[in-house]
Predict the 3D structure of the following.
Amino acid sequence: MHALVGENGAGKSTLMKILYGMQKPDEGTITVDGEQVAFSSPADAIARGIGMVHQHFMLADQLTVLENIVLGSEKLHGIGTAARRAILDLSDRYGLGVRPDAYIEDLGVADRQRVEILKVLYRGATTLILDEPTAVLVPQEVDALFDNLRELKSEGLSVIFISHKLGEVLSVADDITVIRRGTTVGTAIPSETTPRQLAELMVGSELPTPETAESTVTDRPMIQVEGLKLLAAGDSGRALLDDISFTIHEGEVLGIAGVEGNGQTELIDALIGLKHADSGVIRMAGQDITAVPTRKRREDGIGYIPEDRHRHGLLLESPLWENRILGHVTEKPNARGFLLDLKSAQADTRRIVEEYDVRTPGIDVTAASLSGGNQQKLIVGREMSHKPRFLIAAHPTRGVDVGAQAQIWDQIREARREGLAVLLISADLDELIGLSDTLRVIYRGRLVADADPATITPEELGSAMTGAASGHLEHVESGDGSEASEEDETR
Amino acid sequence: MKKFDKERVLLAVAAPVIALVVAVALTSVVLLASGKSPIEPYTLMLEQISYSDVQVLTINQAGMYYLAALAVAIGFRMNLFNIGVDGQYRLAAMVTAVVGAHVALPAALQIPLLIVVAMLTGAFWAGIAGLLKTTRGVSEVVATIMLNAIATSVIGYLTLTENFGVPVGNNQTTGVMKESGWFPGIKLAGGEVYGFVFVAVLAGVLYWLVLNRTRFGFDLRATGASESAAAASGVNAKRMVLTAMLISGGVAGLSGLPILLGDTHTYSLSFPAGLGFTAIGIALLGRNNPVGIALAALLWAFLDKASPALDYATPVAYDKEIAVIMQGLIVIAVVVSSETVRRWGLRRQQRRVGEELAAAARANAGNGNNGNNGNNDSAKEVAAR
């Protein structure tokens, strides 16, 4: 199992794209099983036994697991019983526990990932590339994934593993390659390396920590949410959000922990105004904004770092300066009256590119040509430039390199000192614990637990995220450090 | 930085140019296959440019195409497919003709009144589709096609003699409009150029201004580029759909006016139909760009007006339908080529940005701490804290 670590924009994705035949190298060679190869398409790579599990799953929600797996490889075992047998065989052999007839839309993130892995194995892959496979998993699920991967390894398969989480890399990899700005800067053997050394290799400096130093929490409430309820569209009437109540004060960071798909997206949508609550009240600085439309909310000072930047944060095929206008088209420096002020907007885009270290050759390139981390820096720069009073930060450092991560954390911390209220939603529990002043856990659309970020551990938080614990999570110093260490108190 | 801008222009031009070349080549193949000269029809048509009457006809026709294509393009810019331009302009022209025949105001009021009536009628007809989409989720494609058929029936009913129809010979008209509503044209050697052509040009300028220089235009383009991102940025998607539909319909309503106010002065059975469908191809070829659409409209109008000469060519006559074949091929080719060029351009830019960054990184690594590197260093300092 070989781990590949490096900053975003360092070239990890490009390297993997070349390995998987999506891009062609200008120089150099790839050798598979001692034989030099040249891939011109993913099909060539698959034929050579290289399979890729993408960071964003490529599954059709409305189809079953079986259908998703055979899709595109109908020639292998057909689409009927032979295919089912082959899938079950693979599933048993590697302990994946996949149910062929379940619909993808009913599966959790971890199950979907196993389907992706099985899909690749089904096509006869002997080398698996996993692109940030743990980004969306809770600690317990990460452990299960690693068990699966070890199983694959023991069966003689090779795994290439891309990750930002250095602790994981060290625990699971046999060999590590670090790349920075397109070149290999070092290799490491996990047993002889500490996360700190690895991080230094990656960024050429020390590992940043997201810890906030002194509390800046005031007693002036900025955002108050009371009894928020949101029902699913259609007849089912299932509550996507139920009885959500919280208050974020000026200078406070409220962290929401939870497995993805437990209502975080809906909560964000309700706060930014994309969905309107079925009941409940949202107040900002004492004013009822429950019925206020999105644009007014943003003008009034709600900053928004979306969880899916491609869907909600950017116009991918538009130049950077148009992306700088997006979301703030009515505000200075983008507009004067009803007219756009292109000159100021462009000048301000240059400033953001400079100040937030967005690596780009210019502001006329499309957003799609930047790497994920640089896109994120542009979004953070844009949102921070409008001096928000309340910031919704969903996975603010997802897919961002360590250096930029520190910068984004620093931005949030600095704004918080000046009285910014932040709702932080993140799958990175270290980030949540490190940045938040208050922690809540969301599970099936309800805030089921709260915790003190000063004492809680990721494992303890993890068990509340899977619904195993609720109430106030108290950290208990115990020898075994198992999940049994939280107390279940009724609030 | 400039070169990415230049590249954008180049990419924008590439698709239609490729499409035209492919369409001409394929048309020649068709000619060859039918045993005719693959070149002569083009030279015959090109000769027509020098005739002043063909010039005037082309410009007049292009003016109408231009307005209709702008209407289609407004929809395209936000991913709305307004196929109903045809029904919208015909209904608008008929209603305007009726109003023009029954209301008599001084020209300074009559003409603006007629323009407003045409726009409101077009907007109303398109607005039905817009309302259906925003309230009931009906696809605007289906609704506008249906509305085209309904418009035909409504026009048929309203032009009955017991309603507003006035029979003239074996033609059914809406009566001659009051002269104050006739739009003055420019007399040239080859005929009269509709004055309304200048209104079309003005509409093109407005189209560019509104889309590229106003907040509203930005919202509209953002919605077209990514509905989810636009919604998150505060655009009310439903209201935007309805507004775009209304504007598109309003402009569509204008596209029958050049000939109505400049020439026929009545709506009759022989009023030009099908403009709205042609306009879709023109908007595609013009890549929704006001200048592009103008060139595409001129080309289309030229093919329309120059091709009849093929029938009378000596010594060998050609079928004038060659021009229609070519128009069809252009539409197909432009759809394919613009998508291909778009993808190719995106990939190419991604690669070039990557290369430039790598080069910059190498230069930085070589030079150590120069000014350019300041930001990266500060990031690291932050990280080190």
In short: Residues 321-367 of chain B form the longest helix (47 residues). The domain at 52-317 of chain B is CATH 1.10.3470 (ABC transporter involved in vitamin B12 uptake, BtuC). Confidence is low (pLDDT under 50) at residues 368-385 of chain B.
